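Contributing new records

If you add data, match the layout below exactly. Sequence lines come first and carry their own label; structure lines follow with theirs. Keep one chain per record. Anything else will be rejected by the validation script.
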Amino acid sequence: HMHVLIGQAPKQADCRRLISSMRTTGDLLAALRRTTSMWRDTLGTIRVETNSRAFDRLVNTWLPYQILTARLWGRLGPQQRSGAYGFRDQLQDVLPLTMLRPGLARAQILLHARQQFLRGDVLQWWHQTCDGRTGLGIRNRASDPHLWLAYMTCRYVEVTGDRAILSEPIPFIEGPSIPRGQDGIAFVPRLSEDQGTLLDHCVRGVDLTLSRLGQNGLPLMGAHDWNDGLSAVGSKGKGTSVWLGFFLHDVLRTITPLVEEGCGKAKAESYRLQAARLREALD
């Protein structure tokens, strides 16, 4: 028999160690069993049973498998052939992992929080350097990416009960502002000396959105909202987004109890008032 071993490791020494540990057929079969067992454990956390076996297989096996292999590890989505991280993309991807792999979801939230500027906006996408720092990224006027941090953090805390994540200290990043008349700018940001807790980061994103409301009380569209194709609606600073209004209302609803606990009653009450006004505007 001949076995072909293909893999990767961070360092050459790790590669040599792995190769030397798999010199016999028994070694390789044992490694294969470990891999199979890892996937069985990962994909066996939640089991959905309906009258459609195809649907069950999709939800139980293929979608979680794709999240890990294609979205988090490979980052091979249609708009991510370069392997960049998308601020909303990978936060959305780890939503099911709050139950399947909460440690991975936690790490992803903290990674994204490190891509935020002091004013509350974030890199819509960025490349990571080989040593894990933030490389080339894009800062733009999109109206929704920064809200996904609060959305995902609230869902994670609700599912896992891990309130300690809210107190994690996280630095901000710094870089040039977007020139007047441009929708975005690409650059490599600097790490700021300023830092705040994860809750601080979430609140900055919420407050930035609340500071950008149109005359009708709905959030301004900016360069676009979750639908990147709506790139001309807000070009003159007037167009607003009903979708973003509903999204913001949901974020306010879920983050207010955490804000009351971490920032005080006055801040929480202001969020409740803003949510009530937003609800009227949406109606």
